Structure formats: C-alpha cells, structure tokens
Amino acid sequence: MYYVVEIGTSRQEERERLASLLLEKKLVVDTFFVEGKSHYLWKGKVEEEQCYRLRCHTHSKHREDIIDLVEKESKEEVPLLSFTQVEPSEKVKAWIESI
Fold first, then answer.
1. Cα–Cα distance between 80 and 14 in angstroms, integer?
2. Cβ of 44: how many Cβ atoms within 10 Å?
3. Closest CA to 7 of 86, 84, 79
4. Residue 80's domain spans which residues?
5. At what angle do helices 12-24 and 63-73 cross, to 10 degrees?
6. What is the mean pLDDT of residues 31-37?
7. How many angstroms separate the CA atoms of 63 and 49, rounded?
8. Are 7 and 81 in contact (CB under 8 A)?
9. The predicted structure's pLDDT at residue 9
C-alpha cells in the first residue's frame, strides 16, 4: 500500500527539518512544500495563521515510524499528520519500493 503523507506546521523551519529527517531516515522518497493562510477551530475559537505543509510519498511499512518521528520532533501541540492511500504509476511504485 502506498501513501501521500501530509504534515502541517506553523513554522517554516520545522517543516524543512522534518523533511530532512524523513529523507535521511529513508521513510519517504520525496518532499513537496506548500504554504498558505490557514483558518481552523482551536479550543472553541476560530484561529488564523500562516501554515506550512509538507507532502511526501511513502510505503505503508513506514507509517508507524513516520508517526513516531513527527510526534517526537514536532513543536505543535497536536501535530497535523494524515495519510492518504494512493495508487501510483508502476515507475513511482518502484521508486517508493526502493526505500
């Protein structure tokens, strides 16, 4: 099974540090940065801030290690982390299988 992993943070430097760690530990094959304004409910109030997102491709065998790393390394009170199952092309599958 293959996933696109999305990690959100309010700190640009944290996003870049997490991307480096995930690649160094060979838990993902790529990283893609997205940023923009975020609105969300937090403790009963609507909040607004700049959000820095990291998107990556990985294999399901790395899911728990990614969760552990993000929860350990993130400065967020509740690390924003999600996994979406995808069906990549055969070439992308082979790339993902290489890690």
1. 13
2. 5
3. 79
4. 2-97
5. 140
6. 96
7. 28
8. yes
9. 95
Number of domains in the chain: 1
Sorting pLDDT into bands at 50, 70 and 90, what band is 44?
Answer: very high
Distance CA 34, CA 56 (A): 11
Structure tokens at 74: 């993130």
Q: How many CA within 13 A on the CB side of residue 55?
A: 8
CA-nearest of 93, 65, 66, 88 to 6 is 66
DSSP 1: -
Q: Which residue has the tokens 């399901």?
A: 60
The CATH number given to whatever domain includes residue 64 is 3.30.70.120
Residue 16 banded pLDDT, cuts 50, 70, 90: very high
Q: Which residues contact 29 (CB under 8 A, 6 or more apart)?
A: 56, 57, 58, 95, 96, 98, 99
Tell me how far apart the alpha carbons of residues 10 and 64 are, in angstroms, rounded to a whole number: 23
- The pLDDT score that the predictor gives to residue 67 is 98
